[in-house]
Amino acid sequence: MPYPITRRTLLRVGGATVVVAGIPAIPASALAAAVVQADLVVYGATSAGIVAAVQARRMGRTTVILEPGAHLGGLTTGGLGMTDSGTQAAIKGIAGEFYRRVHAKYAGTPVTPTSPARFTFEPHVARAVFDDLLAESGVPVYHGVRLTGVTMAGNRITELVTENGQLFRGPMFVDASYEGDLMHRAGVAWTVGRESNATYGETINGVQLRGGHQFNFPVDPYVVPGSPASGLLPGISAAPVAPNGTGDGLIQAYNYRMCLTQAANRIPFPRPAGYAAADYELLARYVQAGWSGPFFTTHGVGNGKTDSNNNGAFSTDFIGANYAYPTASHAARDSMAADHRAYQQGLMWFLANDSRLPASVRASTSSWGLAADEFTSTGGWPPQLYVREARRMVSAYVMTERNCRGQETVADPVGLASYTMDSHNCQRVVVNGQVRNEGDVQIGVPGPYSISYRSIVPARIQCANLTVPVCLAASHIAYGSIRMEPVFMILGQSAATAAMLALDAGVALQDLDYPRLRTRLLADGQLLVWPPPATGEVILDSRAGSGVTRAGTWLGSTAIGGYYGPDYEHDDNTGKGVNRMRFTPTLPAAGTYSVYLRWTAHENRASNVPVDIVHSGGIANRTVDQRSAGGQWVPVGTYPFAAGSAGSVLVRTENTNGYVVVDAARFVPA
């Protein structure tokens, strides 16, 4: 049901006396007005939305957060206390500060830039950290404010219309919701479901009938075993399974991340209204076939509590019950969230009480219960449904599996992701008369990878003043890696930074000077590339503009992966001696630098590409073989350079015996 908005539901964080960076917070009287004005209007009090608002305040701007529900902090405060962090060293900026603040809460010490980070925590501790950040920054949060309309002037949002009748106006907006409702209302292109592998040249998108979280014993799917005419058990699809890699409209399953405990004051698992044991007949058969568990995870987060998640073939994921959720009305979403809650509560009741299960399973489950001091307003049950994916924007750059695998890099990074490409199961099907789960993918990435600025802003023609750090442009399988709470915080900070810089410059977000954005992100502690650049390191992409000069004709291509930036260029195996390209870095200090080149390898490449390195001691002539060592930084020597732009690297094509590729040059202090 809708949450009524009253003045008391505003999160008061210091009233009108808070001043950040010389800019006072919005006065209380203005917050209660029919029209509320702020420099940045953030829709969604997720972790990304909170960080975006805090960043805007730190940049001296006013901001408000509108939250359609009653919960603050999204999954970070909603039970996901065992952070899906990937490479923890890649989490910087305000995201890194959040996890340092968590450690400081537990340690009872002040937070500093060198404080340790803690990535496991109880939900109420995460909430306390967010409350501190909001209070210190003077950010007001409106709860129960559901979006009903967006007013546009050309390709710009001018105001948001909410159910309670208030209007929220501003020059810049952030859609930080899990569902992408604001971008949808603003006319931004989006998609739902799984692309085919062919769409973006991927290998693990679309239908994936694999072995993860799969039935390990044969289980009959029919109401009457062996009788297809009797119909299928609840939750099993009658549709035939398409070949692997086929696109469809299905999305990975949702659940609730329970905070459990074995403490004496634990709350026993409730029996939900309308409970029907038949809903868990499939699980009973699986146990009878030989499965003894585990049935859910019990990862500790502190003080004897857990972050409990889906585990195995039949667990807390309500497979197939969420297909309509991304585009549903608020009322329909409330109903689906209630169905997920009833399913999961019924599952836990079943595991703890059903006489068909072994006594050991019932006793083990009953030894756990809901933590009595967490989620006290909802009886210990988490209020935030785990919306693992919903709408995903389609913009000028779509992140794909190639980015996750390091086969393609971006020229305009705004943060890093590093978690496994992770999709939970999407459907439960029948294969050869047995039940099978379909959609689970868990494939690691080689290391942290950069996320493109263009993937968090829409196409200019659609909206020029909106950033989308949560429902960003990514394929289904790439989103499975990016969709982690630390990454949402990282992108929330970058989204707000871009919005405020574009506001200062009076330009559309799509016209923001990327070097200016990069400079500010780095100054605020963000990490944009991996491995972290050495002090004084300079990288020049062939498309960099400044610092790159060319002669002849060069053709762009993305045919072979492993390039740096948006593409690589080649000479088309013509114009030999005419085509050449020079990389001229601006080095911050005199010294010895190791020089690297990057290209994509193929048997049609030249094996004798001449390279001239101009340094303070003269000119060094080298030859590189581009038929091998593609997709990596290849060293071409270490040389002395003066500060500034006196040095360079020239790639030539004279007498070469194949295609010559130019991609990027790198200068690293030795």
Automatic annotation (TrEMBL):
Residues 538-668 form the Golvesin/Xly CBD-like domain. It comes from the Bacteria. Keywords: 4Fe-4S, Iron, Iron-sulfur, Metal-binding, Oxidoreductase. One of its GO terms (molecular function) is metal ion binding. Signal peptide: none annotated. InterPro entries: CBD-like_Golvesin-Xly, FAD/NAD-bd_sf, HdrA-like, TAT_signal. PROSITE patterns: TAT (PS51318). This is FAD dependent oxidoreductase.
